[in-house]
Amino acid sequence: MIRAVQAATRRLHGTLTLFVALALAPVLLGWALVTAIGGVEKRSLPRDDPATTLILVTLDGVRPRELLHGADPSLAPDRADEPVMPFLTRSLAPLGGFIAGDGRFGTGTPFATSMPSYHAMFTGRMTTCLTNECREPRGEGLLSRLVDLAPGSVAVFATWTRLCFGLPAERLANISVCGRDQAFAYLRRHGAAADVEGNADAMIFRAALSRLRLDPPSFLYIALDESDGVGHSGVYPAYLGVLARYDGYLRALWSEMQAMRARGLKPVLVVTTDHGRGDGAEWTGHGFTIPASREGWLLAVGHGIAAQGRAAGTRHRSLFDVRPTVEHLLGLVPRRSLWGGVMTELLAYRG
Question: Which residue among 110, 254, 261, 285 is least crowded, i.e. fewest CB within 10 A of its CB?
Fold first, then answer.
């Protein structure tokens, strides 16, 4: 009986997904054409001085408003425009390149929903993913390519366990730490301090930092998620508190990067979000019906990145550009795509 119900549920879900896909097909086609026009860059040569470790951090559902202007006075009058992530905006950004808001960086896809955005980021192209229930995309993605090239040099630490099923699950099986419980087990296994009362983000970050200190991989992905959950709750002071905690995490990463540089390594840090949030009363939400939530941001700092603060260039960038840029920084020839290209405006070396 249970299996019959499960089968019926799967069929219903598949039917609904197909219906939504057909209904949105014209929108997707139009969006793809708009983002592709003028978007094909020349095939980039691999860097002759690649990063030894690239750290990619995603902060789920963090809109550019707080990064660019500080606390929203309409939501926290007593903290109007107070810096929320001062280390990121005042210390890291001037040392690297920062693209945010004003139509300069977006989700790429029209959905402003997590899993479609992560698919865009790691494939560099549009996929058929419409909801957070998607499994891994077809074809080669950034993670599968890196794992195939050097399996032991890739590490994934994600708070949202569902994300690990939406990426190349089989290839990630032995290199990923997904969710609070796995992070706690990882820390105990490696003799690091693990607070059983700690929240999932804190546990995941501690585990990722431990890996970076013990054995820096070529590619380290840290996906933090609490910001989106707290944002949906509508408690703005709590949202600001999460962002302040993330700022501290970035400070810790930067400190470790300096220690790595002292050992002759060449680390680079890329930080971005999967989607933004609405404005005003819509700040708690995101998605297809909230255009403001398609606004995002990206910071890059470290080896090979030009110290220029707000990145020069007028071209609109999106999550589609993350994969080819990461490949370029790691010394690989980026996979060609109609949607994404290397963000050359961030680079000190322009290949």
Answer: 261
Tokens 């959905």 sit at which residue? 111
Residues contacting residue 236 through CB under 8 Å, at least 6 positions apart? 72, 75, 76, 283
Q: What is the pLDDT of residue 103?
A: 78
305 touches 326 (CB < 8 A) = no
Distance CA 72, CA 293 (A): 15
pLDDT greater than 90 at residue 38: no
How many C-beta neighbours within 10 Å does residue 292 have? 19
Cross-strand pairs, 305: 347
User: How many Å apart are CA 205 and CA 203, to the nearest integer?
Assistant: 5
> Strand, coil or helix: what is 97?
strand
Please state, in angstroms and rounded to a whole number, the distance separating the CA atoms of residues 338 and 144.
20
pLDDT the model gives residue 44 = 52
DSSP per-residue string spanning 77-111? GGGTT--SSHIIIIIIHHHSEEEESTTSEE-SSSS
